[in-house]
Amino acid sequence: MARLEVHNLKAYYFTSKGVVKAVDDVTFSTDESVGIAGESGSGKSTLALSILRMLQPPGRVVDGRVMLDGTDILAMDEHEFNSRIRWKKVSMVFQAAMNALDPVYRIEEQMAELLRYHAHSGSGGFGSSVGSDAYTLMSSAVKQVGLDEDVLKRYPHELSGGMKQRVIIAMALLLKPSLLIADEPTTALDVLVQAQIINLLKRLKREGLMLMLITHDLSIIAEVVDDVGIMYAGQMVEFGSIERVYREPKHPYTQALLQSIPRLRGEKRLTYIKGSPIDLLNVPKGCRFYARCPYAMDICREVDPPALDCEGGNGYVRCWLYSKH
């Protein structure tokens, strides 16, 4: 399995109204599958796009490093990154990606275009028949996600939502990457299809694929990955193993998120987080969760907390409650 290290990553959007600090000094490292959780607007998708170097203007990465197996992939020039990393070592399933399938081309033709772009197929123009080697690769990819080979001959409108999502995952796996980033892969799917996609991701993980699962659904993260990072207002406020974070959450925001999950027995009333997230155009000094935190202290209002070690160096929390000073 690959090793992913993100060091002090900053990705900002430079708008006419000011600078939006969507990802601000994010650091984590893992050689396990990892989940990124947080409410809408916390910076989860921007983090993923930054890793894959697909952040579009007015957004751009302004600082930090992303290390994949010891290589800083942000330091590569675009040609090297595109030929060595993008889709080959790091691939991504985008949010609502199943809606991106072109309705006028068969699945086979759309997958072949990806192969041609990366010079893995010697076939002709878009829409022509593909070579036997390419067809074998495509057939293997759709079978890997639990689909029959005849799906390749179908048009998108002939497939269910779950089948289209599996096709998208197959396309992401076509060049056999070591890391797959999945951004809200179960969005807009019914409960049964969600379960099928979750089981597929779990099987891919067992087969050695490293996953970065981005979602607001903490229950999905708990079922699929090994480590988890909790994002709030552009910062990763807590990182650690699934077992530790879910059993002993440190950050007040993490605690509040977990307390808002419905329980089967319903012995406790659901809680909610008071207030609203901060405006990332006008980030206040101090802790970004200060105004909503039930444990806020004077220092929280004045000084942004550093990442404080927990789990013996394998995790951290950004909260003054755990400072020795």
UniProtKB/TrEMBL annotation:
InterPro entries for the chain: AAA+_ATPase (IPR003593), ABC_transporter-like_ATP-bd (IPR003439), ABC_transporter-like_CS (IPR017871), Oligopep_ABC_C (IPR013563), P-loop_NTPase (IPR027417)
Protein name: Oligopeptide transporter subunit ATP-binding component of ABC superfamily
Any one GO molecular function term: ATP binding
Gene name per UniProt: oppD
Domain of life: Archaea
UniProt entry tagged with the keyword Iron-sulfur: no
Organism: Candidatus Nitrosocaldus cavascurensis
Keyword RNA-binding tagged: no
Keyword list, A-Z: ATP-binding, Nucleotide-binding, Transport
Residue stretches making up the ABC transporter domain: 4-258
Pfam families named in the record: ABC_tran, oligo_HPY
One biological process term in Gene Ontology: peptide transport
